[in-house]
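Figure 3 (text version): structure tokens given as input.
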């Protein structure tokens, strides 16, 4: 077994319009690998190509060219083994309202041809903290419980790779945190996680590495830490004793914003100057500093910078 859970080589998908005979490249020679056991983020604006990629993995869209290898199996030569290696959790909550979680998992296991003696229904229910609701109607479950049940359905055949497509869309903060705790637990037990999300702070907190796709092209692929290092700007907020709102402040390559008579924001490029120089400049202008807080760029800044959205 190689060390990669997923390998994508020169993956291309072209949609043809029969009316105007134009071609649209949804994916343009995409290349990346996902390491076994990591949490990998796949990000991009709407229309970037993420859904096309997941649809190719799920077997509902046929790629135009390129190679995909999942857990050592080639998508073209071993499609059934590829499907068996993946558990895909969709965005939409699609559960039968009158079935219990236990019944739904048993049904799903049957669809995968898993013999009754080999099923781990109770263990999966425990993994996603639904053992107390095992026999309740699915319609009676909360939104967060339904999301966890979708994860449980994707895990019945014990796939080594779990794909989460916008798993926390429409879920409140408390349920979101609970869901991530369950995902972290699965990852600690050796499951490789591939995550798409529009909540960039989630990707920043959860993912070891992140790929950013824009207009079918891979525009970034790196560790979360290194992506954050790409942000050049730093922001400092000063709480001051009092300042004239019309006062003019100027330093080369620095942007001053007087927010109120008690607050100033300063934005500048990292490593371009020493922080003490700004403090000295404000002191020389008779501005008394009462408090200081700093802000570094986050993944959202990287995302905007790379996709221009």
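Below: residues designed for each position.
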């Amino acid at each position: 077994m190689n060390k990669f859970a997923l390998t994508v080589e020169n993956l291309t998908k072209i949609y043809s319009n029969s009316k105007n005979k134009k071609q649209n490249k949804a994916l343009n020679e995409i290349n990346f690998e996902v390491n076994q056991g990591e949490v990998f983020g796949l990000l991009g604006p709407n229309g970037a190509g993420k859904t096309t990629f997941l649809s190719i993995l799920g077997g509902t869209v046929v790629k135009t060219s390129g190679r995909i290898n999942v857990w050592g199996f080639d998508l073209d030569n071993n499609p059934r083994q590829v499907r068996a290696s993946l558990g895909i959790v969709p965005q939409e909550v699609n559960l039968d309202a009158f079935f219990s979680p236990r019944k739904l998992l048993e049904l799903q296991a049957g669809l995968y041809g898993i013999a009754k003696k080999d099923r781990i229904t109770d263990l999966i229910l425990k993994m996603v903290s639904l053992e107390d609701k095992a026999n309740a109607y699915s319609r009676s479950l909360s939104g967060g419980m339904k999301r966890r049940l979708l994860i449980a359905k994707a895990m019945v055949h014990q796939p080594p790779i779990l794909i989460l497509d916008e798993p926390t869309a429409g879920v409140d903060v408390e349920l979101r945190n609970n869901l991530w705790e369950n995902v972290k637990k699965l990852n600690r037990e050796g499951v490789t996680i591939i995550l798409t999300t529009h909540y960039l702070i989630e990707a920043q907190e959860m993912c070891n590495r992140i790929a950013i796709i824009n207009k079918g092209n891979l525009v970034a692929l790196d560790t979360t830490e290194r992506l954050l290092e790409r942000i050049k700007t730093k922001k400092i907020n000063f709480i001051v004793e009092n300042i004239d709102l019309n006062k003019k402040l100027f330093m080369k390559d620095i942007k001053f914003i007087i927010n109120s008579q008690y607050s100033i924001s300063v934005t500048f490029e990292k490593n371009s100057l020493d922080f003490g120089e700004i403090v000295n400049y404000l002191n020389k202008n008779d501005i008394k500093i009462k408090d200081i807080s700093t802000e570094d760029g986050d993944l959202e800044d990287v995302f905007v910078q790379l996709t221009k959205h």
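The longest helix spans residues 173-188.
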